[in-house]
Design brief:
Blueprint: E1 2-7, E2 12-15, E3 18-21, E4 27-31, H1 37-48, E5 55-64, E6 73-78, H2 81-92, E7 101-109, H3 110-113, H4 117-135, H5 139-152, H6 161-168, E8 190-191, H7 194-208, E9 212-217, E10 221-226, E11 234-238, E12 246-247, E13 250-252, H8 271-277, H9 279-285, H10 290-301, H11 307-322, H12 325-342, E14 347-354, E15 360-369, H13 371-377, E16 383-390, E17 398-405, E18 411-419, H14 424-440, E19 445-449, H15 453-456, E20 473-477, H16 479-484, H17 493-503, H18 508-521, H19 523-531, H20 578-600, H21 613-626, E21 630-636, E22 642-647, E23 653-658, E24 665-666, H22 670-674, H23 679-688, H24 702-709, E25 730-732, H25 784-792
Parallel strand pairs: 1-7, 15-25, 16-19, 19-20
Antiparallel strand pairs: 1-4, 2-3, 5-6, 5-7, 8-12, 9-10, 10-11, 11-13, 14-15, 15-18, 16-17, 17-18, 21-22, 22-23, 23-24
Length: about 800
């Protein structure tokens, strides 16, 4: 703690030691070391009795400008927290030689404060302090004046530049702006460091749409002037002798240059200035495109930075928030180890190469799955989706991800991998083999993915753990990827919509009708759909992409990216360094679990709610629809098996088969494909007074939904110094930069198989030797050296 004395209702006088007050303090009290300027003002209003509603206050501190044990007090205007904290720190450290804080407080009516009087008050205070220091005949007072004169005589690059600058800025020419607006520049304003001063000058000129040039920038002073030679505006801000702060001493003239602009880039708006503006934007969103940054800056300042400047600002902001790219690899293994310690059961697998140093390995990839996600997956549907995206950071690579689906079809982020290799075959094989052994277990699963050759080959290998021939897995195509991979030769918007409609039909009648319509529209598209995914001995493979031929393995899930996009759960993840990438997956997974745990907590299990809210709503809607159906005929095949014909309101008839030795089914196929009874089956249940809840698949249970999101994430310590000791090997990246070229933002996009890409026309080229078209000089008959080399080999 430190003492504070508050002086009010008096006047400042010039004494032998500089500025003093002609009345004793109105109040004194001990203050905490961490008190802020806002807390101080509230305390002043409380102790002095000044009406806060009718008045504002000007606070000035009695500052000792002398050194070496001498005293020369001046008044220091305090109008922002940075100046107040500097004063407190100097007092606590005894740097000023004075152990008490003396504050001179002026009460200013609010009606007066609205008329530029705060600036005038500050001007009078500064003039008073300057007069006290200049007219004092005391030895200590002369020291302050002599120090200022000594500073003016310091040469710059062999010339008396500093003396010239200070002589140009006289008291009559200096102006004072409002000290209470932090966006303005005024005489007496203090800055903790040179960077803060530069930023304030830039921000002021950008807002005013004026331009400046720097005459001198160094540890002793900062001098700028207007870029327009006809404008005489100049700012002079020297630093304290020990460089602890900078203060604007003089501002010469006013800007008379033109400030008309067209919203284009500002010459003083550098990329490092923009990076400070967008730190919160990057921190909240995880990423921002250069275009978004341009729009963000335009909203603040009315000018649009260039695309290149916005891109560099984003890279700098990412580095400031998440660290350097190469250093991030050094933190990766210790951070994953800290997660494993905080969340037992978390799985991590490394893909690396050996180096000369046995304690360092060359990074090729890492896969991880958090323990709460592994535990939650046990209560999900037996369906997963896998996908990948490019990493467009400094070292490139790809990110692989596997997600599961809960009882309501919501995505559960299950497992991740960051791969450096460009070999997709090896990357997917390594990731899926680890996924089977360590994460999902041996149970048969349906896998939804795109049609990459590297993924397709997994389901054809008997030792991959995902061989479809023995029922280890059931592979299905994502309908979204299917539509995006339609060859461009006959791809149209109407055709894509028609394919999506056909793929999602559960009735064979509607599926065949849609296929006929595709054949009538475009025969090539029809033939392509028939042959998609077929083996040499197969005529068609509709089960891979159509719901009606699926067999119920995909539980009605048609797209890997349905209502929730996989990578939208992790915004901007492609742009981050490797450790920040892993951290984002942990943070967003924890947020997803917390958010959905809260949402599912509203399920009333105590009131015997059997199914999730979504499934309950579907059953209620189908029961209402079933009330409009009627039973046409019943055929009993045995005592426990019946075949019923149900007619809908539109006079469409469906056949329902019910029995205890087989799964209840309907000709509409909804019960078989999704595990949820259709309205036709519910109509029969109502007719026979059968409880239809026994016909719903257990994967949709309310208790399973609650158990899915129940596991808790436990974050590791935020500081690397607090992480558990890591005794394993270190991993170093392959320092191979991304290819040079125009800056591009790599966004998620489907990987179209090479065999579906239509080759473009071959460009005609001529030989450099014989000038003939159709071959290059390497294959030219005149190139005897190349031909001789070829023949010898």
């Amino acid at each position: 703690m430190f003492p504070i004395s508050i002086y009010t209702e008096g006047a400042v006088e010039n004494g032998p030691m500089g500025a003093t007050y002609n009345k004793p303090p109105s109040a004194s009290y001990p203050a905490q070391d961490d008190i802020t300027f806002d807390e101080l003002k509230r305390k002043i209003f409380e102790l002095t009795g000044i009406n806060e509603d009718k008045n504002s206050i000007n606070v000035n501190a009695r500052w000792n400008a002398g050194t070496g044990g001498s005293y020369c007090f001046v008044l220091l205007p305090i109008c922002e927290n940075s100046m107040w904290r500097m004063l407190v720190e100097k007092t606590l450290s005894s740097a000023t030689g004075w152990s008490i804080v003396e504050l001179f407080v002026e009460a200013v009516p609010n009606s007066v404060c609205t008329q530029n009087d705060p600036g005038e008050k500050s001007h009078s205070i500064v003039d008073c302090t300057e007069k006290a220091s200049e007219n004092s005949t005391h030895e200590n007072g002369l020291f302050h004046r002599n120090r200022r004169e000594e500073n003016q005589e310091e040469p710059l690059l062999g010339e008396n530049a500093k003396e010239h600058e200070s002589q140009d800025l006289t008291d009559d020419e200096s102006i004072d702006l409002k000290p209470y607006d932090e966006s303005t520049l005024y005489k007496g304003r203090l800055f903790d460091c040179l960077d803060d001063l530069k930023r304030a000058v830039k921000e002021y000129h950008i807002k005013q749409n004026r331009k400046f040039v720097t005459k001198y920038s160094g540890p002793d002073r900062y001098v700028v002037k207007c870029m327009d030679p006809k404008c005489g505006w100049t700012l002079y801000a020297p630093s304290d002798r020990d460089g602890s702060y900078y203060q604007i001493k003089k501002i010469k003239g006013e800007h008379v240059c033109s400030n008309e602009g067209d919203g284009e880039d500002h010459v003083n708006m550098s990329h490092d200035f923009i990076s400070q503006l967008i730190l919160d934007l990057i921190r909240k969103k995880g990423d921002a495109s250069p275009k978004e940054i341009q729009e963000f800056v335009y909203e603040l300042y009315g000018c649009t930075p260039s695309y290149s400047k916005a891109w560099r600002a984003k890279e700098l902001a990412i580095t400031q928030l998440f660290g350097e790219w190469k250093e991030s690899y050094a933190k990766l293994a210790p951070y994953l180890n800290a997660i494993q310690v905080a969340n037992p059961g978390t799985k991590v697998e490394w893909l690396s190469d050996s180096t000369v140093d046995p304690n360092v390995r060359l990074f090729r990839g890492v896969a991880w799955a958090f323990a709460p996600a592994i535990e939650g997956f046990k209560n999900c549907r037996p369906v997963i989706s896998i996908d990948s995206t490019k990493l467009c950071g400094k070292y490139g690579g790809r990110m692989l991800i596997a997600v599961a689906y809960d009882a309501e079809g919501q995505l559960l982020p299950l497992a991740f991998a960051a791969i450096k290799d460009e070999d997709d075959d090896e990357s997917w094989s390594w990731f899926m083999h680890w996924l089977r052994l360590e994460v999902v277990g041996p149970s048969p699963l349906c896998v939804i993915s795109d049609r990459q050759d590297s993924i397709l080959s997994l389901f054809k290998q008997p030792d991959s753990g995902w061989y479809t021939g023995t029922g280890q897995a059931f592979h299905r195509y994502c309908s979204r990827y299917l539509c995006e991979s339609i060859p461009c030769a006959f791809k149209t918007v109407d055709l894509v919509r028609l394919v999506q409609w056909v793929a999602s039909q559960n009735q064979l009648r509607k599926f065949r009708l849609g296929m006929m319509r595709i054949m009538e529209t475009n025969l090539e598209a029809y033939n392509w759909l028939v042959k998609v995914g077929t083996k040499p001995d197969e005529e068609s493979a509709y089960h891979l992409w159509s719901l009606c031929e699926d067999g119920g393995y995909r539980y009605g899930i048609m797209a890997a990216n349905g209502n929730e996009s996989i990578f939208n759960l992790f915004p901007g993840i492609q742009e981050l360094p490797i450790t920040a990438l892993v951290e984002l997956t942990f943070v967003k997974s924890a947020e997803t679990f917390a958010r959905k745990r809260e949402a599912t907590s509203k399920i009333e299990v105590e009131k015997q709610q059997l199914w999730s809210n979504k499934i309950t709503a579907i059953l209620e809607a189908r029961r209402a629809k079933a009330s409009q159906h009627r039973i046409v005929s019943i055929q009993s095949q045995s005592f426990l098996q019946e075949e019923v014909e149900v007619e809908t309101r539109t006079e469409v008839k469906h056949t329902v088969r019910v029995g205890d030795d087989q799964r209840s089914c309907c000709s509409c196929q909804k019960p078989q494909l999704t595990g949820i009874p259709c309205s036709h089956l519910l109509a029969f249940c109502a007719f026979r007074s059968v409880n239809a809840n026994y016909l719903v698949d257990s994967a949709y249970g309310a208790r399973r939904l609650l158990a899915t999101w129940a596991p808790q994430f436990h974050p590791p310590p935020s500081s690397p110094d607090e992480w558990p000791d890591y005794m394993g090997v270190a991993y170093s990246p392959v320092c191979k930069m991304s290819k040079r070229g125009r800056r591009k933002k790599n966004v998620w996009s489907p990987s179209v198989p090479e065999k579906l890409k239509k080759p473009g026309p071959v460009a005609a080229y001529s030989c450099g030797l014989c000038k003939q078209i159709g071959h290059s000089k390497r294959c030219c008959s005149r190139n005897t050296v190349a031909l001789g080399t070829t023949s010898e080999s």
